[in-house]
């Protein structure tokens, strides 16, 4: 596949039901799977990860389909590194950020396989 794609970011946002114990367990499992796959939590239901090629993007999209809970809505976005660099984070000083990454940047060393 020919592409001018170089490096970019995958952004995953989701609304998952958490009304029952089983739904909460599925939502927590999905969030943990994202973290284990190298995603950073930007907000409680918004995660991002750097991606080095279109093939890796497609592989991660396939993986997301395989771990998606049976209920809820998951949206996957792609941003080039240049588009990502133009984004901004606006957050209140009195809002606890917890484990959220405030200004993620492309990692210095990126996995190639």
Explained architecture:
Strands 2-3-1-4 form a four-stranded antiparallel beta sheet. It is 31% helix and 23% strand. It has a domain of 78 residues: Alpha-Beta Plaits, CATH 3.30.70.240. It is of the alpha+beta class. The mean pLDDT is 83. The chain contains three helices and four strands, in the order E-H-E-E-H-E-H. The longest helix has 16 residues.
- List SSEs in N-to-C order: EHEEHEH
Number of helices: 3
The gyration radius over C-alpha positions equals 15 Å
Architecture per CATH nomenclature, i.e. the level-2 architecture of the domain at 8-85: 2-Layer Sandwich
| Number of β-strand runs | 4
What is the overall shape?
flat
**Structural classification:** alpha+beta
Widest sheet, order of strands: 2-3-1-4
* Poorly predicted runs of 5 or more residues: none
Q: In CATH terms, what is the fold-level topology of the domain at 8-85?
A: Alpha-Beta Plaits
State the helical fraction: 25-40%
**CATH domain class name of the domain at 8-85:** Alpha Beta
Largest sheet: 4 strands, antiparallel
What assembly state would you assign to the polypeptide chains in this entry?
single chain
* Termini gap: 17 Å
Give a nutshell description of this structure.
The protein is an alpha+beta fold and about 110 residues long. Helices cover about 30% and strands about 25% of the residues. The chain has a four-stranded antiparallel sheet with strand order 2-3-1-4.
Please describe the topology of this protein.
Blueprint: E1 8-15, H1 21-36, E2 40-43, E3 46-51, H2 54-67, E4 73-80, H3 81-85
Antiparallel strand pairs: 1-3, 1-4, 2-3
